[in-house]
Amino acid sequence: MIIGPPKILLAFVLSASHVCASLPPATNLNEDYVNNQLVSFNIETTQGQQLSSDNTDPMVFMKYNSSDPFSKHMISEGSIADFVGMADFPEKTTFVFSAYTAEDLDELQSALPVSPQFVFAESLDEIDVLLNTSWNSPVLTLSTSSGVATNRLDCYYGSCAWPDEQDFDLPLLNGGSGCSSSEYPSDAASGSYVIVYPHGACSPTDAAKVASKLSYNVIVVQEEGEDLELISSEDDVDGLNIVATMIGFEPGSEIIDSFEAADNGVLNVTLSYDVVPGFFASVSAGGRLLEIGWEKLPTLQMLGWAAQWLEYKSALDTTLSSEEALVVPIFEFDLMQEAASVTMTLPVSESDLRAGGFDAMNVEFALGCDGGQDQDCSIWDHCITFTADCGDGEENLKNEPGGASDEIGRWVTSFRRGVGHFLTDASPLFKKIFAGDDVDTPPTCMFKIQTEGEPWRATLSLRFTKSDDAEAESSLPSETRPIIYENMATKFAGKEYNENRSFVFDVPEGTTKVLLHALITGHGQCEFLPSSHQWIFNDNNSTVFSSSDIAYSSYMLAGTPFGCANRTVEGAVPNEHGTWYYGRGGWCDGMDVKPLVFDVTSEVEVGSTNSLRYYGLGYLSGPIGKGDEDGCGGYILMSSNLAFY
Ligand SMILES: *[C@@H]1O[C@H](CO)[C@@H](O)[C@H](O)[C@H]1NC(C)=O
Ligand SMILES: *[C@@H]1O[C@H](CO)[C@@H](O)[C@H](O)[C@H]1NC(C)=O
Ligand SMILES: *[C@@H]1O[C@H](CO)[C@@H](O)[C@H](O)[C@H]1NC(C)=O
Ligand SMILES: *[C@@H]1O[C@H](CO)[C@@H](O)[C@H](O)[C@H]1NC(C)=O
Ligand SMILES: *[C@@H]1O[C@H](CO)[C@@H](O)[C@H](O)[C@H]1NC(C)=O
Ligand SMILES: *[C@@H]1O[C@H](CO)[C@@H](O)[C@H](O)[C@H]1NC(C)=O
Ligand SMILES: *[C@@H]1O[C@H](CO)[C@@H](O)[C@H](O)[C@H]1NC(C)=O
User: What Pfam families does this protein's entry cite (predicted)?
Assistant: First the structure.
C-alpha cells in the first residue's frame, strides 16, 4: 500500500499525475555531524547574551542568505505573520538567527518582531562549522543555452509539481505576458517550458493558471525591483499540476531578449541546484543535534513546526524518564523489511502487574533508519502495524499492514525523516497480550511489526504504568474482545461497505465499564477525503458514538492543506520530504494512529446479550458536505475491540 501525493479527482482535491519527490535534493556531503550527536557551542548574541549547549529547552538555528530566493521568501512579511500567528506557537524554543553577511543580519533583525525568543548572532560557533562543512543546503538554479544563469523560487509544493532533478536541456519558448492562451505557442509539445512576463497585466499565479490549462511548464518573470513571490493556487491542492517557477526581472528580460538571436526562436533551459553552506539546524532540549527537515515550503512556519516537534519530543522524553514504569522491550532497532517478529515470554504475569498497582499499558514506538541523517531514510509513507499473537488462537484476518484482529498499534512512516517517537495508550487491549486464562503465568507471544516496501528500523516497548487516578484499579480490562463483523470488507465506495456490520456480544455479569477501542485509517481515495465512523448499541438510534465527536480534526480535515501540519504538536513529524502537511483520513505521516476510544457503558445491559452496529460515512464534497454511504472511494483499515472492566 503506497500512499503518495494526492491522486484524487474531486472538486476540492484536484487530480495530480506527478510523483516527482526529487526536490529538494539531498546535499549532505559527509557524516561528520549526525542526528542525535551531542554538540558543544558557545554563542554570543547581538543582545549580549551567551547561549550554550547546556540548554534545557530547544534551539532552532537559521543562517540567512538573502541571495537564496527560498530564504528571502521566509523573511517576507506574510511569512513572518504566519509564523508568529501560528496556533500553539512553540513558546519554549529559542530561535537563533544568523547570516552570511552583516547586511543580511541587519535585514533579519529589522524584519523580525522583538521577542525574547528571537535572538541574533554574528557567529554560531560549532553550528557554523556544521553548516559550513556538513549540513549543506540546495539553492535552486535556472540557466539557458543563451548563457543566462539565475536563482529561482519554485511554486508552492502543494499546488505544483516539482521538477525532477534535471540537469538536462529542455526546449524553452516565449509565452508573451502569459495572461491569455493566445500568447502561448500553439504548436509546442505539452510539458514544454514557456517563459512569460505578465508585467502587471495579470498576477504571476493567474499566468501560471493559463499555462496549466495548456499543460505547459512555466517560468514567470517578476516585475522590476520586486522580490520573487510564491506562485500558488491557494487552497486547491495540486491545483496547478505543472512545474511553475519565478525568476527576477533582469535575468528574465535577458532571456526574453535572447530569443531574437536564437535559431528558430528556440532556447534550452536547465533546472538544477547549487550546493551551498547550510541554512538550518536545531538542538534539542539536552543538547542533541537534529536536522529540521527538508526545504520544501519557504515559510518561517517551517522553523515553527520544527520547534513544536522538539517541544513535543522534550515533553515525551520527560514523561518516559520520570514516570514509574515496567518496561518490556520487544524490538530494538530491528529491521522492518517487510516485517520483524519475535517470540518471547513476558517477564511478568497479569497477577504480578495487578498486584504491583499497574493500571495502564502503553506502546512506545520509535521509527528510525540506517544512517545518521534524514537523507538516509526511505522516501515513501506506509502503514506500520504491530500485532501480538499470545496464544488465544485468533486468526489474523488480513494480509495487509493494519486491520488484523490481533493488532495492538498502528503508525505511518515519514517521508524520508528518521525521527518519529510516540507513546500510545493501548490499555483497552491489555487482554490481547494477557489473553490466557491463567493469570499467574507470564504469557508467551509472537510479536510482529510490519510495514511495506522500503526498510525502516523499529524500536518498540510495552510500558506498564500507574496512574494517579484513585479509580485506577479498573483501568486494565478483564476481557478484550475483538469485534468481528460478517462483512469485513475494506473497500468503501458504496453502501455495501455498511452491510452486515452488526456484532452480538454478552456483557459478563459484574462488568462495571465497557470501552470501545478502534484503530481506523483511510487509504487510496479515502486518504484525502473526510470520513466518519459510527457505532450504535442495541438499536438505540438516538445514541450514536461518532468519530466526529472525539476526533474531528483527525478524520474530517482529510485533504485540507494544513490538517497534519496542525498536528505537529501531537507528535506528527514535520518538514518531511513529501506532502506531509495535508490532512489525512485518520492519520498523518510520521505519527501514531490515535485510537478512537468511547465509554459505551450506559448503552449496554450487563449480564445479557447485546448488539452493536457500525456504519461509516464519506464526504465526497469535503468536510462541509453531508456524509453519505457512497463512502470515499478508497478503503478503510479497521480493527476494533470491546474492553470489559
Ligand atoms: C548564498 O546564495 C547565493 C545564491 O545562490 C550563492 O551563490 C552563495 O554561495 C550563497 N552563499 C552562502 C554562503 O551560502
Ligand atoms: C567555511 O568554509 C570556508 C571555505 O572552506 C572557510 O573559508 C570559512 O572560514 C569557513 N567558515 C566557518 C565558519 O567555518
Ligand atoms: C538544446 O538541447 C538539445 C538536447 O541536448 C540539443 O541537441 C540542442 O542543440 C540544444 N539547443 C540549443 C539552442 O542549445
Ligand atoms: C450481507 O448479508 C446478506 C445476507 O446474508 C448477503 O446477501 C449480502 O451479500 C451481504 N452483504 C455484504 C456486503 O456482505
Ligand atoms: C435504526 O436505524 C436503522 C438504520 O436507519 C434502521 O434500520 C432501524 O430500524 C432503526 N431502529 C429503530 C429502533 O428505529
Ligand atoms: C437511548 O439513547 C437515549 C439518548 O442518549 C437515552 O436517553 C436512552 O436511555 C437510550 N435508551 C436505552 C434503552 O438505552
Ligand atoms: C489549523 O489550526 C488552526 C488553529 O487551530 C485552525 O484555525 C486552522 O483551521 C487549522 N487548519 C487546518 C487546515 O486544519
Answer: N-glycanase_C
Q: Which fold has domain 31-135+278-322?
A: Glutaredoxin (3.40.30)
CATH of domain 139-275: 3.50.30.30
Looking from the CA of residue 486, the nearest atom of ligand 4 is 14
Q: How far is the CA of 367 from the centre of ligand 3 (A)?
A: 46
Is 194's pLDDT higher than 60? yes
**CA of residue 604 to ligand 5 center, whole Å:** 17
CA-nearest residue for atom 7, ligand 1, is 67
Cβ atoms 98, 62 nearer than 8 A: yes
Alpha helices in 343-396 (DSSP H): 350-355
Give the three-state DSSP class for 64.
strand
The residues, ordered by sequence, that sit 6+ positions from 298 with a Cβ below 8 Å of its Cβ are 69, 70, 71, 73, 74, 79, 153, 230
State in Å: Cα 601 to ligand 6 middle: 12
Tell which wins on pLDDT, 424 or 191: 424
Domain limits, the chain: 31-135+278-322, 139-275, 323-644
Task: Answer yes or no: is the C-beta of 64 below 6 A from any ligand 1 atom.
Answer: no
**φ, ψ of residue 569 in degrees (nearest 5):** -65, -20
Candidates 535, 540, 541, 612: which one to mutate for ligand 5, based on the most atoms within 8 Å of Cβ?
541
Average pLDDT over residues 504-512: 97
- Respond yes or no on whether the N-terminal peptide bond of residue 165 is cis (omega within 30° of 0): no
Residue 240 predicted with pLDDT over 60:
yes
Question: The C-alpha cell of 616 is what?
Answer: 461509516
Q: What are phi and psi of 384, to 5 degrees?
A: -120, 135
- Taking residues 4-23, what's their average pLDDT? 34
* 279's grid cell: 541554512
- Name the residue with the closest Cα to ligand 6, atom 11: 540
pTM over 0.85? The answer is yes
The DSSP annotation for 129-188 comes to: HHHHHTS-EEEEEEEETTS-EEE-EEPPTTTSPPPP---S-EEEEE-TTSSSGGGS-SSS
> Class of 323-644 per CATH?
mainly beta
Which residue's alpha carbon is nearest to atom 13 within ligand 3?
267
> Whose Cα sits closest to atom 14 in ligand 4?
487
In sequence order, the 6+-apart residues with CB closer than 8 A to the CB of 310 are 58, 60, 90, 93, 282, 284, 285, 290
Residues 6+ away with beta carbon under 8 Å from 456: 335, 336, 337, 367, 368, 369, 377, 378, 384, 413
Ligand that comes closest to the CA of residue 193: 3
Q: Which three cell numbers stand for residue 452?
A: 511495506
How far does the centroid of ligand 7 lie from the alpha carbon of residue 112, in Å? 23
| pLDDT value of residue 474 | 59
In this prediction, residue 165 has a pLDDT band, given cuts at 50, 70 and 90, of low
| Average pLDDT estimate for 228-255 | 90
Ligand 5: residues whose CB is within 6 Å? 539, 541
